[in-house]
Amino acid sequence: MPQPTLRLARKVTFSSAHRYFNPAFSEDENKRIFGMCYTPYGHGHNYVLEAYFEGPVDPQTGMVINLRDVDLILKDVLKPLDHHHLNFDVPEFKSAVPTTENIAKYCFDRIAEKLVGTPVRLSQVRLFEGDDLWVDCYG
Fold first, then answer.
1. Which residue from 20, 42, 69, 71 could staple onto 34, CB 3.0 to 4.6 Å apart?
2. What is the pLDDT of residues 115-126, one digit of tens each?
3. Residue 34 belongs to what H/E stretch?
4. At a CB cut-off of 8 Å and minimum separation 6, what does 123 contact?
5. CB 87 within 8 Å of CB 98
6. List 18, 54, 107, 129, catalytic entry
């Protein structure tokens, strides 16, 4: 009988500041497109990230992935983001607008990289920018 795939999820929080701004746009275009998110100094959020890991249950440990490993992965991925201004402190966001979509993709890509060579895969991240706004990124 084939072994079922299970999904384990972990939720973590981090805080970042960002500014919606595209240097290819004029001042008026930036204001029109990004509205209140286009300010010279930026603004901040307390983000909630959910990461979903899929794989078979290891018969020796009874786990899809050890939560200690999950926590280390998430801590490592979020370290450059937490309590930083994304536009200034994270190289990827010097050229990409740090929207919720781009931050979710950033997190997904870096978490997935850390699982290469394991039987576990990252199936989804969900990034909440607030109670009423989130992005899902699937692999």
1. 20
2. 999 999 999 999
3. helix 27-34
4. 7, 52, 53, 54, 138, 139
5. yes
6. 129
Token digits of residue 120: 């576990």
Q: Pick the catalytic residue: 37, 45, 50, 92?
A: 37
Amino acid letter at 128?
Answer: F
Phi, psi dihedral angles at 105 (to 5 degrees): -65, -40
pLDDT tens readout for residues 61-85: 999 999 999 999 999 999 999 999 9
Residue 115, classed as helix, strand or coil, is coil
Backbone angles phi, psi at 88, to 5 degrees: -100, -30
Q: Is 129 a catalytic residue?
A: yes
- CA distances in angstroms from 103 to 6, 18, 34, 48, 128, listed in the order given: 26, 10, 16, 12, 10
| Amino acid, single-letter form, for residue 67 | L
What length does the chain have? Answer: 139
Let me know how many helices (H) and strands (E) the chain has, helices first: 4, 5
Among residues 29, 43, 83, 113, which one is catalytic? Answer: 83
